[in-house]
Amino acid sequence: MATIILCSFNKTAQVTSRRCFISHLKGLASAGQSHLPSCSIHSTSLTLLTGTRWFSRGTGVRFMSHGTAGRATAGRIRRGALALCGAAAVTAAAAVAGFLANASHFQRAEMAKKIPQTVEEEEGDILEKCKGLMSPPVTDVNVLQRRKGEMCTKMEMLIMETQADFCRALEKVDGGRFKVDRWERKEGGGGISCVMQDGKVFEKAGVNVSVVSGYLTEEAAKQMRSRGKVLKGKDGKLPFCAMGVSSVIHPKNPHIPTVHFNYRYFEIEEEDGSKQWWFGGGTDLTPIYINKGDAFHFHNTLKEACDKHHPQYYSNFKKWCDRYFYIPHRGETRGIGGIFFDDLDGPGQEEVFSFVKSCARTVVPCYIPIVNKHLKDTFTAEEKDWQQVRRGRYVEFNLVYDRGVKFGLATPGSRIESILMSLPLTARWEYMHEPAEGTLEAEMLEVLRNPKEWV
Fold first, then answer.
1. Which residue among 35, 260, 299, 310 is the active-site one?
2. Closest C-alpha among 313, 365, 364 to residue 339
3. Whole-number pLDDT of residue 268
4. What parts of the sequence cross the membrane (predicted)?
């Protein structure tokens, strides 16, 4: 689910944004909770990445990090910021998946101390980049040009480009066109929802972007206090910005998997002007029938992106994904996973952003080849029924366990249409459904109950 943050708090600039952009681009197409099985963790430590450990003490969590910005105090701040991201980002209409096991247990990821430097392409002219987007950016193009070097601008352009690249690729496969729906949030910011329904290939395809800003609500502040930190705002106010891109694709053919991805950024400003920030996201695949070639291609594409930055990232974030997308009452994962991470805040913004960019740029190459491979696959009525049952499981996870969706549905000012974009047009629930032994359906279920290593 997705979230977008507008790091500018200049309301005048925001008001003039659309008018200024249109004058420049006239004719632009309008087109964690990490599931740790229900248990109580006491005085436990787990090593996630080199140099990072997390410790649980009763109902509180203390982070011990080494060599990263923020250190102990900032760690507690980010812990609260993560809770806010779920609420604030989703309030903007994108269900931001926070990584929480439950109200008491929390896990965070941290980048390695050193990441190999990669050669980045020039940022380029923002006005020129905007010509290829599905819609003008949420933030005024003049503001983006003026703040070209700031992370909020870089991330907004990345999520806008990710949306456009994925939508164009899906349109090419399907032959249909996305409906582009711009919306505004009165509390600050807005978003662009792109949805294609009942196409030739895709029953429902949604790719959302949101960029929101404002001040922490009292409810968000309470959640942060419940996690052991009270942030000091100016005159009792804490400015924040959040942004992200999210997508869920439900194909008609049961041999083409469902895919989901979400990449987001969050920033909060304290009384002294200092800022706390983090990135999160991931990509995961939900096939109806297992295909080992598809699984290898999907996971290997993600692994190659992760390996550019650290050899442990794929392994750790793959495990994290399997834990997060888990349906406890069914005892099975939602799909065959991919990668998932949250609260990435070190060693520096540029290094983390480079990693997130690598991941975001895999969404087309990791999925479209699989779609093309199965375009002409035939299927039976029984296989279509199994797809409907699996979609029911997808809905169960999103509505019962996905923290971002739950926050969004319960938060005033949230855009329900965009939050529920992730749900399929059709699904099915059969009482006590269990596939017969030795069938392809049973093989799929065994993989979901016992996650595999695909690469």
1. 260
2. 313
3. 82
4. 81-101
